[in-house]
Design a protein that fits this description.
This protein is α/β, with parallel strands linked by helices. It has a domain of 172 residues: 3-Layer(aba) Sandwich (Rossmann fold), CATH 3.40.50.720. Helix content is 43%, strand content 18%. The chain contains 13 helices and 14 strands. The strands form 4 sheets. A 7-stranded parallel sheet has the order 3-2-1-4-5-7-11, with helices on both faces. Helix 1 links the parallel strand 1 and strand 2. Helix 8 packs parallel to helix 10. Bound molecules: serine. The site of serine has 10 residues, from loops. The site of serine (SER) has 10 residues, from loops.
Length: 337
């Protein structure tokens, strides 16, 4: 079989860089990317074409491309989106809408379902208070879908738009001869941690920031309380889940949106792990009320049994395996420890 053509938007971000590397490693993909920024050295030679600029305006460039899969990663993350709400809406919703229209158009016109892989987030959930959060434990996809943030609202709405374009667009499914619809598949990711890149403008950033700071002998003031808990995942598992969801036969999917989980961890547990690996680490807690509020509204953990059942999802990294065999060895090498 020939090469598949894929588009990766937001390619310069943390997920984008890791995803492009994985697609390139797999081979058989013609990788086209887009981002506001030029491509970093880590992926620049793996990509056949990069379209730099604002996706909302650049999308028309892609109407002539025959994409098999679109990974739409470009987004304004939760902390930034809360400050610049209108801009976040434009990037997160209008950008997604433009690409969904492209995928729908191509799927229906050429009779080939374009796969649209969309990273949603635990931010799509909204726990009303800490008591409810504790009581709820691992939440299922259809529970607590009342986000408290602009970013979460954007993600949840885009999930709905994706379902609309892949199932109901123009109500053509009611015709005798309905056209082929696009194929929308979303993952609700927990906080992600990479040993190779550092996050910015998200709210789960305190975990990776603390660890990267400790490895570089830099003092770190954590912006949430020690008892703050949400789920996290190693970047290689995030990439694995995207690949698995992309590869899953459509008939095995019972929904368009799947939770994926790995391990729930508190900010204090992050600190303990950092201290054990880097005994001189200086980590203090200086909670920022707004960012604390955001993380408190996210669930402690998510129930990913639907992904496990439908497409065989299981993470490679639990908490110990993550620290001992991925994050710490890689980060020590990176910072020359
Ligand atoms: N990690 C993201 C953020 O903190 C949530 O998806 O914004």
């Amino acid at each position: 079989m020939g090469e598949k053509q894929v588009l990766v938007t937001g390619a310069c971000g943390e997920i984008g860089q890791a995803l492009v590397q994985e697609l390139s490693k797999r081979g058989a993909y013609r990788i086209v990317t887009s981002d506001l920024a030029p491509l970093p050295d880590s992926i620049k030679d793996l990509v056949v074409e990069h379209v730099q600029g604002d996706l909302v305006f650049k999308v028309k460039v892609f109407y002539d491309y025959d994409f098999d899969v679109i990974f739409h990663l470009a987004a304004s993350l939760s902390s930034k989106a809360e400050i610049a709400t209108e801009e976040a809406h434009r990037i997160n919703v209008e950008g997604t809408m433009q690409l969904l229209m492209l995928a729908a158009y191509r799927s229906e016109k050429y009779g080939k379902a374009v796969k649209f892989i969309f990273p949603s987030s635990i931010a799509a959930y909204g726990m009303p208070n800490l008591e409810a959060k504790k009581k709820a434990g691992r939440v299922r996809e259809e529970e607590w879908d009342s986000p408290h943030t602009m970013y979460g609202c954007n993600k949840l709405y885009c999930e709905k738009l994706g379902m609309y374009y892949s199932r109901f667009h123009g109500q053509k499914h009611l015709d005798d001869n309905p056209p082929v619809m696009m194929d929308f598949r979303a993952l609700r990711f927990p906080g992600l941690i990479s040993a190779f890149t550092v996050p910015s403008s998200g709210t789960s950033d305190y975990g990776p920031e603390m660890l990267h700071a400790a490895a570089q002998d830099q003092a770190y003031a954590c912006f949430v309380r020690p008892d703050t808990i949400i789920s996290f995942m190693a970047m290689p598992d995030a990439i694995k889940s995207m690949m698995m969801l992309m590869d899953a036969p459509r008939e095995s999917l019972t929904t368009n949106v799947y939770n994926v989980a790995a391990f729930a961890i508190t900010a204090e547990e992050f600190r303990q792990r950092a201290l054990k690996a880097f005994p001189g680490a200086q980590i203090t807690f200086e909670p920022n009320p707004r960012r604390q509020g955001i993380v408190d509204s996210w669930p402690e953990d998510v129930d990913d049994s639907r992904a496990r059942k439908d497409w065989g999802w299981t993470p490679d990294y639990d908490m110990d395996h993550f620290f001992d065999n991925y994050f710490l060895p890689e980060i020590k090498r990176r910072y020359g420890k």
